[in-house]
Amino acid sequence: MSPPSLCPLLAILSTRHPPSAGRLLQLHAHLLTAGLMSSRSPFPLASRLVEALAHSDDPRHSPRPLLHALALLASLPTPPDSASPYNAALRALSLCTDRGLVTRCLPLYCSLLRSARPDHLTFPFLLKACARLQERNYGNAVLGNVLSLGFHADVFVVNAAMHFLAVCSSMAEARKLFDGSHVRDLVSWNTLIGGYVRRGVPREALEMFWRMVGDGAVTPDEVTMIGVVSGSAQLRDLELGRRLHGYVESHGVRCTVRLMNVVMDMYIKCGDLERAKSVFEGIDKKTIVSWTTMIVGYAQFGLMDDARKVFDEMPERDVFPWNALMTGYVQCKRGKEALRLFHDMQEAMVEPDDITMVNLLSACSQLGALEMGMWVHHYIDRRRVSLSVMLGTNLVDMYSKCGNIEKAIRVFKEIPEKNALTWTAMISGLANHGHADVAIKYFQRMIELGLQPDEITFIGVLSACCHAGLVKEGQEFFSLMVSKYHLERKMKHYSCMVDLLGRAGYLDEAEHLVNTMPMEPDAVVWGALFFACRMHGNITLGEKAAMKLVELDPGDSGIYVLLANMYAEANMRKKADKVRVMMRHLGVEKVPGCSCIELNGVVHEFIVKDKSHTDIAAIYDCLHEITLQIEHTANMIDTSMLLAEPCKIVID
């Protein structure tokens, strides 16, 4: 085959729709066997083949042709003197989902510089890759090349540079480039607006939008509106969100599914579920994101039955709707449904991810389902996944709440990188298990490492002080929250302090703290004060606290029972009887006690005198046997054993 006969091949490779990747690979094999790839032919056959392979398939789904193109490019005896094949490969690499492939953009650019001159198409692809890789230094060097080679006036290059600066540097630098540029198009405005929203400064994004509308040089499109509607969602500004939605409808902006999904999300975050539902129902071709957003919306409002209905109506599901529904169950304290949903997920052969595992661990924590939690831990180990901060923190929390503090400590020590949330989970777990001294040592270690405690961390250390009766230390921590760490005290912090002071007998100080709180005390605060009064026999203050509790929840039978018991303990029988009469008069009934037990990974609930369980006969037979054994053991027990020293947990 003589060089001129290659012209038809070049024509085929130069078309907008070249052959498939498979045909191109066959063509390459044929050219190799014919000895044409090593030819010094003036026709840029190899370069065209590289370009065709790089463009043949979406590299996000099938990187094989791209890898073949890169290998071909590297094997050429004489590197191409044109940027085109390099640009094709850079474009494909910048789109890859595999970070390892994206990193290959950087050495490829160096190869280009050795054999050819970059053109105006080179830099957008390269800067996009730098932004994805967070390669700030390399990207800045590329910007230097842009200036030295004279591409600073090209709108495509300027837009790519703005995107890079918005992601890797600062919005101030991106804005400076925008304001100083004489070439702006719609992408320029969208890049800046999107950058502001991603950085969590939506007001600046909206200011740019109104400036864009007033300028009139370009017309906002669906990408613009996705940015500003997302900004209104961040601000939780329903009125602004409605106004922007109205702009979309009145100005003929293309209502893509992606835009409508964002509008739905905005209404949900701004509290207008009905409008979100209306938008959802108006989408003709709903995507998985559409369905998942609606599930999240119903779950956010606690409407889990509606969320489940939407889930069941989905034509297809990936892991995201499963996670959304499971998260809703966990947030609504319906842990059993979350575990059942995971069972359904396994039957549907859907691969769980880290979010699934976190939801499962949270459900186990709610239910005290240690056996199931251990299974999740084993599943994580079996996948040979290194313990991420998120998974590790939730494992520590699960083991702590399910009663195995020793295992929680072991997991904590195995986590390679710990953040403030991890330390907080460990501190709270130790505090709840009564290991106050160790919890405080962990808090001190956390501070030594330079980690910033948050409000939840202080709940942990205050709870530790409360369990151990460390009044002075608790007061110091309570003060440090504001004086050193500039944190706002929440209701839970006040309830911890009232409990700490009250248990120690400082009832006047506890009452003063309640009376000087910056917010109205809730039932937990008054409850802590009431229990302290009952413990120390302060009937007058106890009555005051009890009356406040009744005001907050007149239908709660618990407070009436506790008040009657307090009177009975103080030999005030008439008052105790009066409370019971009041309960009958108000129609308040004592709520029966409920217990849970986990057996073979299944959590069973039992209510006092309940006989509705399917295995009730076997349960009562077993209960009778246990009762006999307890009675037998009670007759033989050595009471001196009750004075045994409690176990200690040692900190390294």
Can you tell me about this structure?
It is elongated and about 105 Å long. Among the domains are: 82 residues, Alpha Horseshoe (Serine Threonine Protein Phosphatase 5, Tetratricopeptide repeat), CATH 1.25.40.10; 41 residues, no CATH class. The chain is mainly α and 652 residues long. The longest helix is centred in the C-terminal third of the chain and has 21 residues. The termini are far apart. The C terminus is likely disordered.
User: What's the assembly state of these chains?
Assistant: single chain
Distance between the termini: 77 Å
CATH homologous superfamily placement of the domain at 510-591? Tetratricopeptide repeat domain
- Residue windows where pLDDT falls under 50 for at least 5 positions: 39-43, 637-652
Radius of gyration: 33 Å
Any idea of the CATH topology of the domain at 510-591?
Serine Threonine Protein Phosphatase 5, Tetratricopeptide repeat
Largest sheet: 2 strands, antiparallel
The count of β-strands is 2
The CATH architecture of the domain at 510-591 is Alpha Horseshoe
InterPro entries: E_motif (IPR046848), PPR_At4g14850-like_plant (IPR046960), PPR_rpt (IPR002885), TPR-like_helical_dom_sf (IPR011990)
PPR repeats: 185-219, 287-321, 419-453
Keywords: Repeat, Transit peptide
Protein name: Pentatricopeptide repeat-containing protein
